[in-house]
From TrEMBL:
Protein's name according to its UniProt entry: Uncharacterized protein
Origin species: Effrenium voratum
Taxonomic lineage from the root: Eukaryota, Sar, Alveolata, Dinophyceae, Suessiales
Amino acid sequence: MQNSNFSMLKNWRTYKRTLPVREVNQKPLPLFELLYFGNDADVQTLGSLLAKVPGTTSRFVAPYLTAPGAYGKTSSVLPAFLTNDDLGLYVYMSFSNNAERRHEGPSVGMIETMHSQKTNPDLAGVAFICECLKTQLEEGKYVRLDPLPEWFTSITDGTADHIDKLRDQIKKLLQEIRPQQKLVLIHLDEHKKMWEGKDARAIQFRRAAVQALLAVDFVRVILTFTEPPSLPVDAARNTSALARVALPFARAAADKVALHFCPDILNMYGTPMDWTAAEQRVWACCLLWVGLCIDVESPTALHQPDSQLRKGFSSLTKWLRSKGAKISKTQFLARFGETFNKVRDWDKDKSPLDTKVVRQLAAGIPDADTPQNEAFPTLVSVAGQRLCLPLFRLLYVRPLNQSELSSCFWRSRDVFLEDMRKAPTQVLVGSPLERAVLCALTCREYLPLPGLPDIPVSFEQLEPGRLFEKVSATGSEVQLARALESLNSNTLYYDGHDGTEGHPLADIWFCADPRWLVLLDCGGTKKKAKKKMSAKQAQIRQLVKDGCLSDWKVTVLIFIPAAPSETIASSTPSPNVDIAIIAGSLAAEWLGSLSQLLQYLPEDG
């Protein structure tokens, strides 16, 4: 990247001055000097997407990041850049905060002047970003409002170059700094502060600035701000308009965090990957609580000794050292869960939301369908570039109208939360995962299935129960027939009998249509996916043989997110029976916001 013709790129010392900083203990520290705990797979994925943005054919595509607690976006970009060999130069340009290492957009007075002179906001935006780029690269400095910047004086006194000439200047400048014919990544942080506001001229100004960079074929741009970028009005959405794509955020790796701040875990119990499957599942629950704590308090808190997160790890470490080898792994895991499940008391934002909005975000909204004038809470992008509620917000948000708490969606959410509070005594691949699927079902209008018709879903009631009175299906045909005839078409049923053995046929069941029974069985591991499929086939075959399912269409869905792909059974016990494994990307799509759980699952479920 070194280039002696540009002040910013003369050497490492001049370059690192332009990299992002954050306040830690009232001291600005470069982010690259702080430990980064990003999930490896997430960082790799983000790095690949920075070079090749998915999901659109538009000419100008501006990808952006959202984050669960509105923190950690900026710190994830540079690590992702470093994973991709197609990217050769990282240029960080901030427009707010960053310890004053930032470019200043037009002041109120300057905006009023441009309004009165009917200045072209497209020309202004391109002139602005051109001066920002030149000032930072050639002088290692930033555009300031005093004295009046050149971009503003030139467009108000009529001496500014034509907009096409300004774009050519930008391209030439970037060509001169392009290293080894690789891509140049430009990170526009707090980009909405270029010209703050939601009016059309401000949006046009920002859009033109971003477009001028995107027009250079070897340039990639990433935007970071707490809200999605403003799109142009509908009439202006064409191939030359700015498109936006939400990229998946690189979440903090809770296991890295836990083992770094509490190394006594490794010293006393060895690597969690070597623990038993049952211990790993309880460990997954513990990590889920740590992940929620990070989202609520922010990744920056990991660098602050007085944060709730660091205090929690300090308390756990002292307890371990005081007890020594006397503490069993089971006791340790219980203590770990107790230490960090207090996250429910940390939620910074308890403001209620409209139920319709919560359900939409819980299911996941494609970025292009996001309403432009909606006041959204903090968002996070999940698989498929869908915008969702952060998991900690979904768990604790309340409806605007409290009378709606009795609705199917809110009741299913509370059933999920109740099981979450039992962790780590409940394992993540067991009951909590079942409850997550239960909640996800109440957010949708249909369930997509590979190679099968979509299943319509619409529920008004939520009821716990059982299809069989006994654990074994053998000899229970009478009970099953009686149970089927009593099913209501608008009710979502789930196995809700505490303290009893597992359900023999399904964890969740409902009627998609009259006499169309859908059975959902959750959990399992990818190693056992085929075995579980065979077991369900045998179970259903026996029920068909005994005439229990006469005149019923039956769809059996085995929800195993750890399995590598979606699989349809090659043969079924009856023409009216379909069996499918829901896994991989389809499982994540089904779960929507709740797919954030999947990162905590053990490697094999």
